[in-house]
Design a protein that fits this description.
Chitinase A, domain 3; about 450 residues; alpha+beta; disordered C terminus; Alpha-Beta Plaits; Trigger factor, domain 2; about 45% helix; 6-stranded antiparallel beta sheet
Length: about 450
């Protein structure tokens, strides 16, 4: 087989291949024999049809199957001989049986990027110092007190910070009732006959709508007040974003928050059967585990940034395009979940696309680097590891394993799982070889929880 390769930009190569006539004839003979054994024609017993009849009757099917076989052989041999790492076929320019019996093939293929690995021994990383302090534990228990608080009705008195106002209200935008501007799902924004609103204890605490609850402080039961606020520009209901609205509010009741003591009785509510000290130790362990998880995320991100920032190479366009589409769909879905309307998303589509493209390029680049490290370090994934992951996923989804596995196979899910495990193993290998320096967290970052980062892999 004669193979000529012309390297092209963007991870492509042009292949010119000639398969000799004896190989073509051997493959043709094998196909004719296979058709003769399986074909059914009137007047002939199965397996006894003359080959000349088979070649004439099934010539079209035989030639198409022969082309497919020869092309598959050509891709495989070219890939192995030239070490191309063929990812796909971009375009077939020519596929023809020549007069001399040879088969000629000219095609453009997509190949794996060719690049040198950066140094990944002892990658330097910085992680914020993390510690589960008594103060951080106290803060957790303070939040627990809030969760288990009880509320007592007050017959008189004025609303004070930490009190809960039980209110009814009707909202307007100009002279138009909000009920005419919002759908049924968002109806609580427009009107309610009984709604609980906590009076904030500080400026950072927000309850209900921005600037609303603060204006109720000092009111008494049966008081009425017109509350005016301006909704934020990123408000979830696009027709109201940035607009001024007013509410006619009536105070129907006042409730005082009664916080439980931090003692064994509270511990029993948090984790039945445990004392306060046991619950405190349990929470300390949970917080420590969460901090360790955050630390590993920080390390992983810095590893990926080091690897992708230390080498430059072209990326296959179609893979980046597909990954960009995945990121776009993900970001749009997150936007909807956060209350963004279609109009807001369309207004920001260019920025969204640029962000998705940047994420996709970084993700694809990281994948190629990690796969090459796996090859160099002989990191592999065996079938038992894949089976264990499938069983775990089936258990989490509460699905029968066989049915779950069948559905995975139908959508090529096993290959995705194998790749995910491979990436995890490579990252685990890299995390075990980093040079870690602990640094003080930035002033704005909670020293007890550390900073949060999204993994790029």
């Amino acid at each position: 087989m004669n193979i000529s390769v012309e390297r092209l930009p963007d991870c492509k190569a042009k292949l010119t291949i000639e398969i000799p006539s004896d190989t073509v004839e051997s493959e043709r003979t094998g196909l004719v024999n296979a058709f003769a054994q399986q074909a059914k024609l009137p007047g002939y017993r199965p397996g006894k049809i003359p080959k000349s009849v088979v070649e004439k009757k099934f010539s079209g099917q035989i030639n198409e199957e022969l082309k497919d076989r020869l092309m598959r052989q050509a891709w495989a041999e070219a890939d192995q001989q030239e070490k191309l790492g063929i990812l796909g076929i971009a375009e077939v320019e020519r596929q023809m049986f020549e007069a001399d019996g040879t088969f000629s093939l000219i095609a453009e293929v997509v190949t794996q990027p060719d690049f040198d690995l950066p140094d990944y021994s002892e990658i330097p990383v910085e992680v914020p110092k993390m510690e589960v302090t008594d103060e951080s534990l106290d803060n957790v228990f303070e939040r627990m007190r809030q969760n288990f608080a009880e509320f007592e009705d007050l017959e008189d008195g004025e609303l004070k910070p930490a009190n809960v106002a039980v209110i009814s209200y009707v909202g307007f935008q100009g002279e138009t009732p909000l009920t005419e501007l919002v759908d049924e799902e968002n109806n609580p924004i427009a009107v309610s006959d009984e709604y609980w609103v906590k009076i904030p204890e500080n400026e950072d605490e927000q309850t209900f709508l921005p600037g609303f609850a603060e204006q109720l402080e000092g009111l008494k039961i049966n008081d009425e007040k017109e509350v005016e606020i301006t909704l934020p520009e990123d408000f979830g209901i696009e027709d109201l974003a940035g607009k001024g609205v007013r509410y006619n509010v009536t105070i129907k009741g006042i409730k005082e928050q009664k916080l439980p003591e931090i003692d064994d009785a509270l511990a029993e509510k948090i984790e039945p059967g445990k004392t306060l000290e046991e619950v405190r130790e349990s929470i300390r362990e949970q917080m420590g585990a969460e901090q360790e998880k955050q630390k590993q995320e920080v390390i992983t991100n810095q590893i990926l940034n080091h690897l992708t920032g230390s080498t430059e190479f072209d990326l296959p366009e179609h893979i980046v395009f597909n990954e960009t589409q995945r990121h776009v769909n993900q970001m749009v879905m997150q936007g909807y979940q956060q209350g963004m309307g279609q109009e807001v998303i369309e207004e920001n589509q260019e920025q969204l696309l640029q962000s998705a493209q940047a994420r996709a390029s970084s993700s694809v680049k990281a994948t190629f680097v990690l796969e090459k490290i796996a090859e160099k370090e002989s990191i592999t994934v065996n079938d038992d590891e894949v089976s264990q992951r499938v069983m775990m996923m089936a258990a989490q989804a509460q699905r029968p394993v066989k049915k779950f596995a069948r559905e995975l196979r139908d959508r090529n899910g096993f290959q995705e799982i194998r790749h995910d495990i491979l990436v995890s193993k490579v990252l685990e290998f890299l995390r075990g070889n980093v040079s870690v320096t602990e640094v003080d967290p930035p002033a704005e970052t909670d020293a007890e929880t550390g900073s949060e980062s999204d993994s790029a892999a």
